[in-house]
Design the sequence.
């Protein structure tokens, strides 16, 4: 049951972005390398980790996202939770291009009449690319999505969005 609640929370977060016309894509349910969703906006890629727990979210969630940033070659990461974050999680997030959205912020987003998530846009615009296309020697990981309309391999979508070419 606990695992199902976590998946429901992931779908809730995904719907929040899709309702605001921000493209997000699911990663596999297992072996997701620390990312539940991948977000594309303003030419940037951010991995998202969704955490639904009864206690404050610790450093492990941020560590997962930091690993996912490297694996998916993302520009940054976002951890979204129904809870607050520990001080250690906040410190690690600040030094690793990770945005933390706690339960209070999430509730504010859902109650907002605005369709825009301006603070996420600002976060993405502040990210810098630590790698260039020329430095990418490994193939872009494929993301297998559970939705019918997402059957196309994610590698192709990444190329289209980032204009990486064939």
Sequence:
């Amino acid at each position: 049951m606990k695992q199902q609640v976590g998946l429901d929370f992931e779908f809730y977060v995904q719907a929040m972005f899709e309702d605001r016309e921000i493209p997000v894509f699911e990663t596999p349910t297992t072996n997701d390398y620390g990312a539940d969703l991948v977000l594309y906006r303003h030419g940037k890629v951010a991995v998202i980790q969704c955490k639904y727990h009864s206690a404050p979210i610790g450093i492990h969630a941020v560590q997962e996202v930091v690993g996912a940033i490297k694996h998916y070659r993302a520009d940054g990461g976002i951890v979204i939770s129904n809870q607050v974050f520990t001080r250690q999680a906040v410190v690690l997030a600040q030094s690793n291009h990770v945005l933390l959205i706690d339960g209070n912020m999430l509730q504010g987003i859902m109650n907002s009449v605005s369709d825009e998530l301006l603070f996420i846009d600002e976060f993405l615009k502040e990210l810098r690319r630590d790698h260039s296309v020329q430095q990418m020697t490994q193939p872009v990981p494929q993301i297998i999505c559970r939705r019918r309309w997402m059957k196309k391999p994610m590698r192709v979508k990444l190329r289209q969005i980032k204009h990486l070419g064939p």
In short: The helical segments are 2-19, 59-71, 87-94, 103-111, 118-126, 154-162. The chain has a mean pLDDT of 76. The chain is about 40% helix and 15% strand. Strands lie at 24-26, 37-41, 44-51, 76-81, 98-101.
